[in-house]
Amino acid sequence: MMNRRFLILLLFLAIPLMAGFWAGYAVGTKHPSDESLYHEELPAATTAAYREGAERDSLADQLMAQRRNSITRAVALATPAVVGINVTEVREYTYRDPWSQFFGEDPFFNQFFGRNRTFRQEVKGLGSGFIISADGYILTNDHVAGNAKQITVTLTNKEKYNAKIVGTDQASDICLLKIEGKNFPYLRLGNSDDIIVGEWAIAMGNPFGLFEISDKPTVTVGVISAAGVNLSSQDNRYYRNMIQTDAAINSGNSGGPLMNAIGEVIGVNAIILNPSQNNGIGTNIGLGFAIPINRVKSVIADLKKNGKIERNFWTGLEIQTVDARVARYFGLSKPEGVIVSDVKPGSPAERAGFKPGDIILGINNDQVDNEDDINSLLIDARVGDVWKMKVLRDKKYLTMDLKLEKGSS
Predict the structure, then answer these.
(1) Which residues of 349-369 are buried (b: 16+ CB within 10 A; e: fewer)?
(2) Nearest CA to 224 among 205, 239, 241, 246?
(3) Is residue 308 a contact partner of residue 167, using CB atoms and an 8 Å limit?
(4) Which of 46, 218, 319, 349 could form a disulfide with 42 if both were Cys (CB 3.0 to 4.6 A apart)?
(5) Residues sharing a CB contact under 8 Å with residue 195, sequence separation 6 or more, in sequence order
(6) pLDDT digits (tens, 9 = 90+) for 131-180
(7) CA 170 from chain center: how many Å?
(8) DSSP letters spanning 59-110
(9) What is the rounded distance in angstroms from the CA atom of residue 217 to the CA atom of residue 122?
């Protein structure tokens, strides 16, 4: 009886001890089916590789964000409004008849073998342009399309349009075209007086006709290298206060936009300088020039209204560039300005008080070094404008007001 009770007591004491043992096993012992086996620590090399991969992904994300910057946004904004331009123009050539030397002035033979003969030839060319309004006005250069007989404009959506010339101006090298349609993408015109030397500059256009291959303009990027650059006149075109850029501009880029980093047009690409040529056509070496858009704005208004720029004013002045001899005679330290050689009776110049021998050194805020400077300033002049002239007379500096009056010299 006693043994039975003792066994029952042992049984009751053993049950809690066994329960604790099994509980401890369940908590602290690894079992093949234990899920923790799938989460044990990886080798150090594997962990480093995962960490490196995460850092690489993070860097890739940062670089991706940096790839999309102000320039890429400006290009995406502008691209649909940039166009390729193909033109056909008729050029007239004059040549000396080689047979004329054998017949002298004989009137009979000269009717068949005249001294000079002319012939016409169709010439194809290309350039760039950009749409400036939703109703299809397009800006380009006069030297691109000003003399064209036929003009075809190609958009980035591959659509082609026949364009007509609304007006063109050789002196400022600006031509305004029009295509029929509506809701065209267009570029916003900026403020070329607000440019900063060293800021980003984006040139877009159709160099060497590449637009025809891809239906997309070529993009080049540089900086504003200089502002207010005066270049020599070419073919009665005057390039004054030009914007210089090192963004690559090549043959075919003429007429395309030069933009700032927010996609505003600050100039119309017009000319490049290259040691191998002197006519504005050649290979880019980082010396490209654009016509400031603020000057272009006034030209656009006149071309829309009149189809041309009215410069039918006169001054009554006859001038010539001051050379070294004249500079010495008048006591100038260097040749500068233009000297008045004659004043027409009853002219605006006579009413302003000009006299032969006066030396004009400046007009408004622009310095005058030669006759070209005067002619280039006439680009922006209109009837009724008053020029404030800095004049040297008898070794004294004067300021004289000259009104540009309608008429002819």
Answers:
(1) beebebeeebbbbbbeebebb
(2) 246
(3) yes
(4) 46
(5) 224, 227, 243, 260, 266
(6) 999 999 999 999 999 999 999 999 999 999 999 999 999 999 999 999 99
(7) 19
(8) HHHHHHHHHS-HHHHHHHHHGGGEEEEEEEEEEEEEEE-GGGGGTTT-HHHH
(9) 26
The gap from C-alpha 392 to its chain's centroid, in whole angstroms, comes to 39
Instruction: Characterize the bridge pairing of strands 265-272 and 313-314.
Output: unpaired
**Contact indicator for 68, 126 with CB cutoff of 8 Å:** no
CA distances 231 to 129, 284, 291, Å, are 22, 17, 11
Q: Write phi, then psi, for 401 (nearest 5 degrees).
A: -100, 125
- What tokens does 218 get? 């070529």
What single letter denotes the amino acid at residue 381?
Answer: A
**Would the pTM of this model clear 0.85, i.e. be above it?**
no
Q: Which residues pair with 257 in a beta bridge?
A: 268
| For the chain, the helix, strand and coil percentages under 3-state DSSP, each to the nearest 5 | 30, 35, 35
- Residue-wise pLDDT tens digits, 326-383: 999 888 889 999 999 999 999 999 999 999 999 999 999 889 998 888 888 888 888 8
Residue type, 95: Y
